[in-house]
Design a protein that fits this description.
With 896 residues, the protein is of the alpha+beta class. It is 40% helix and 21% strand. Helix 24 runs parallel beside helix 27 (886-895). It is globular, with a radius of gyration of 28 Å.
């Protein structure tokens, strides 16, 4: 460890806070040069603390210019306290007292975007996880909960809107300035504090709660974006109604506000009553926002609103419990999205995200349980494991208990712990107590890292009419955890007969959590042992098994299904997710065949069963194009080949070049064999009707644009003309961006001129729309064609690019390093050098973002020896930097 680098914080060392803060009063005076924050805290000794010290240590930052410190109105002498870096120690404080501190800040210089900073001409805050300490001296930890009263003063002309948590209680003028006081009646930790000051416009609506209370809803943004918030308002009202119906949770304040800001490290933040959003997660208009963008807005608005209970009313005791609020709330927003659209498509999307982001994390040097045991910088643990895998763990509890019993558990959890800072153990115990259940073995999901592997074999006994499944579970070693205990997990499955129907069967009741008989026959099995056998009786014919329906557990499955069986499941499985999954497994097998042929220098010979399977999907889309029962969104998903990132994850040593070549070869074969069908489906799903953001239209556009992506693998001008025509005629961003992305990715020489023309037209048309230009940057940075390094370096030099805006940085750096696999892993190592250069630059601007973009380099063990050496060399170069932030140091040092 470098001298001066921080040490890890351990969960085992948690102690209750030695002092508590009952009330927090803030006076915030905002100015263009220096701003001032006066905090008045009512502090008392914590009766539950075993600390015998009379000294009080408060969190702060080196950027706090402390003006005065007073206890009970008396200014302290210099020998009564000491400031050392980011800590203020008060010596021999009373058992109960009032502490007043006054600090000076320069928010306009805060490029890390933590605490109080400026986004454009707007003052705003981001306090999760530990940003409040950049605003005032405080006990900045989630188990210190306080009532807040905040008064903001600022120039009336520049900042006519002054917002904070809770309800407005007073306002007035003071010369050229004005002030507003906000009071939050609910105790909250400092990470939920929020404040905004700016020249903003807003839209307003109202929601009547189930108890008859009227709640004012307001969404604020800068004036040029005010025409893009209507959809977010609809999503908010839908979220409020859904949470009342599904979880019985009612909103508690008189007003709920959302503010959209352009410079924001995260997607959004659930501050009590005043949610601050990245503009990309709240602004939506058909001509500037794709269908995926709309869906993201809907999901994120719901997610942050749902936090009002799962995160705010019941919060985390410490940051090791982060998944308590994030995993649970991700699961809740996934449920909401499924109810608003296609359940199957939402589940496919959730699982694809898990496999492409979380599975690699579980297999890398930063692997950690959803409740980590230690950390150096908590910002590094806002991970796919905490969020997405955390959601899967909650989903498994619901699958094991059943929907009604899960609701009993959540009711008890919210009622028992309202107003408290609690742990994941409290959540699981509420589930047990509400249902007289035993989840003791299930708790290993919270403490063990890694993705479990299931090895499954089967046998059918025709004479006894029994079908036997043998399941063996294991979990690879992860940092600090070589040996793993067996997990308790739900295995949802069905058995299909020769006609494609679900077969009813019998099974020992001890092995079954419950059976679902609604439109299918699915048993949810309790897998608890390292090796466990399940015997199904009354099975009158040899079945085809449909395993892990709905992806009932976040595992890797090894089961030797024949390719004929996979085709059969694609066509007949009553579980929509498993129809998609069968197609993915078939595609993986075929692509892996081709990877092997490429590596052996053999001629490419592609299993034609993939052609038959895709042909069947396209036939379904053509022959049932007018059928309202056909799920076009699911068909679109089933036409998409597994990603290169997922294909790499399935191998011990990823051959990125062979994977890229093989995947393209399979897609090109499908086009050559089925071009007429792709074209027919494309044309059948063209529409001259005006844009509608509803599930049917979204599905139709999605299916059409998947077909376009296949057609554009061709070198003929017919497809290029079709694509250019769609781009020029598009009245919505979904079709426009799909067309220009297809042009950008098209390898045909004939696409070069229309590609450059389209890029120029796109930029000129949307140069004043920041989020659209982010798309413009991102599409080019993720292009898999040769020459990517030169393209991304040129994009960094573009006048519209800046590293200081996280959205703009992500549009280039993340799009290239995370999504452009074949070019990031170029054999000359130039992709690795490029990312390391960006990390080093970002480290001095925004350490949190620097750490987040570093992760592709941390997965060096997945690649060949030459690439490993080059990736490690760049990690070493990063570690050799002076003044390396704790954020970057933690990830780079653990990785190397």
């Amino acid at each position: 460890m470098k001298e001066g680098q921080p040490k890890a914080i351990e969960l085992s060392e948690y102690r209750v806070p030695p002092y508590l803060i009952s009330t927090t009063e803030l006076q915030v005076d905002l100015n263009e040069d220096v701003s001032y924050v006066t905090s008045t805290l009512a502090i008392t000794k914590n009766p539950d603390s075993k600390s015998y010290s009379d000294d009080l240590v408060l969190n702060g930052s080196v950027d706090l210019d402390t003006q005065t410190i007073k206890i009970d109105g008396r200014e302290l002498l210099s020998n009564e306290y000491v400031i050392e870096g980011d800590q203020l120690t008060l010596f021999s404080v009373p058992q109960s007292f009032q502490l007043e501190t006054n600090v000076a800040l320069k928010p306009q210089e805060n490029t890390a975007l933590e605490g109080l900073y400026k986004s454009g001409d707007m003052f705003c805050t981001q306090c999760e996880a530990e940003g409040f300490r950049n605003i005032a001296w405080y006990l900045d930890r989630p188990d210190v909960m306080s009532q807040y009263r905040t008064t903001i003063r600022a120039d009336k002309a520049r900042y006519p809107i002054l917002l904070s948590n809770g309800n407005e209680v007073a306002r007035g003028d003071a010369g050229e300035k004005h002030w507003v006081t906000w009071e939050d009646p609910f105790k909250k930790p400092a990470y939920l504090f929020a404040m905004v000051a700016g020249d903003l416009k807003h839209v307003e609506d109202h929601f009547t709660t189930m108890s008859g209370r009227d709640v004012t809803l307001q969404i604020f943004t800068e004036s040029h974006n005010i025409d893009k918030v209507d959809f977010a308002m609809t999503a908010l009202k839908n979220s409020m109604a859904w949470d009342e119906k599904t979880y019985g949770r009612e909103y508690d304040l008189d007003i709920f506000m959302i503010v959209a800001v352009e410079s924001f490290n995260m997607g959004a933040m659930e501050n009590k009553g005043l949610n601050i959003f990245n503009t990309s997660c709240v602004l939506a208009r058909p001509d500037t926002t794709s269908d995926a963008g709309y869906q993201r807005v809907e999901a994120v608005v719901a997610h942050e609103y749902f936090h009002n209970w799962s995160g705010n009313r019941v919060t985390c005791r410490d940051w090791f419990q982060l998944s308590l609020k994030e995993g649970f709330t991700v699961f809740r927003d996934q449920q909401f999205s499924a109810d608003m659209g296609s359940e199957t498509v939402c589940r496919v999307s959730d699982v694809a995200t898990l496999r492409n982001s979380q599975f690699p994390e579980d297999a890398g040097p930063m692997a950690h349980p959803i409740r980590p045991g230690s950390y150096i910088e908590i910002n590094n643990f806002y991970t796919a494991t905490v969020y997405e895998k955390g959601a899967e763990v909650v989903r498994m509890i619901r699958t094991l208990l059943g929907e009604a019993n899960f609701r009993k558990g959540t009711d008890l959890y919210f009622d028992r712990h309202d107003g408290q800072a609690v742990t994941t153990e409290d959540f699981v115990r509420a589930m047990e107590d509400a249902n007289d259940a035993d989840l003791s073995q299930f708790r290993y999901w919270y403490s063990q890292a890694g993705t479990p592997v299931l090895n499954v074999s089967d046998a059918y006994d025709d004479a006894a009419k029994t079908y036997t499944l043998t399941i063996e579970q294991s979990c690879p070693a992860t940092p600090g955890q070589d040996d793993k205990q067996a997990f308790h997990m739900p295995i949802a499955l069905g058995l299909l007969g020769a006609e494609g129907q679900d077969i009813e069967f019998g099974i020992d009741g001890a092995d079954v959590a419950h059976v679902v008989t609604d439109n299918q026959y699915t048993a949810v099995l309790n897998l608890r042992e390292s090796s466990q056998q399940f015997i199904f009786s009354g099975v009158t014919e040899k079945p085809v098994v449909s395993l892990l329906r709905g992806f009932s557990a976040p595992v890797k499955l090894n089961f030797d299904s024949s390719r004929d069986d996979l085709q059969f499941l694609m066509q007949h499985d009553s579980d929509g997710f498993n129809r998609w999954e069968a197609g993915q497994r078939l595609a993986v097998a075929v692509i892996q065949d081709v990877v092997g042929q490429i590596q052996q220098g053999q001629a490419i010979d592609i299993d034609t069963r993939i052609v038959t399977a895709i042909s069947g999907l396209l036939d379904e889309a053509v022959n049932h194009s007018a059928d309202s029962q056909i799920d076009k969104a699911m068909l679109a998903d089933m036409l998409v080949m597994p990603t290169e990132a997922y294909l790499a994850e399935l191998t011990e040593v990823a051959d990125v070049d062979a994977i890229h070549e093989a995947r393209d070869a399979v897609r090109l074969l499908l086009l050559n064999k089925l071009k007429g069908l792709f074209l027919s489906v494309y044309k059948l799903n063209q529409s001259s009707a005006s844009y509608q953001m509803d599930s049917n239209d979204v599905a139709q556009r999605g299916l059409k644009n998947v077909c376009l992506s296949y057609l554009m693998m061709s070198s003929d001008t017919e497809a290029i003309d079709l694509c250019v025509g769609q781009f020029e005629a598009a009245d919505n961003m979904t079709d426009a961006s799909a067309a220009i992305r297809a042009l950008i990715n098209c390898p045909a020489e004939a696409a070069a001129v229309p590609r450059e023309k389209a890029l120029t037209t796109f930029y000129e048309r949307w140069s004043n729309e920041a989020l659209v230009i982010d798309q413009w940057f991102g599409m080019q940075a993720s292009c898999p064609l040769p020459g990517a390094i030169d393209r991304v370096k040129n994009l960094l030099r573009h006048d519209a690019f800046t590293m200081k805006n996280p959205n703009r940085m992500r549009s280039v750096v993340v799009s290239f390093a995370f999504q452009n696999t074949v070019n990031f892993h170029q054999k000359d190592g130039s992709g690795y050098e490029f990312l390391a250069d960006c990390v080093i630059e970002l480290n001095g601007i925004n350490p949190q973002m620097a750490a987040r973009v570093l992760s592709p380099l941390t997965r060096w063990r997945k690649y060949d020896a030459e690439r490993q050496a080059m990736m490690k060399a760049q990690l070493t170069r990063i570690l050799d930097e002076e003044k390396l932030s704790p954020d970057v140091f933690e990830i780079a040092s653990k990785s190397i």
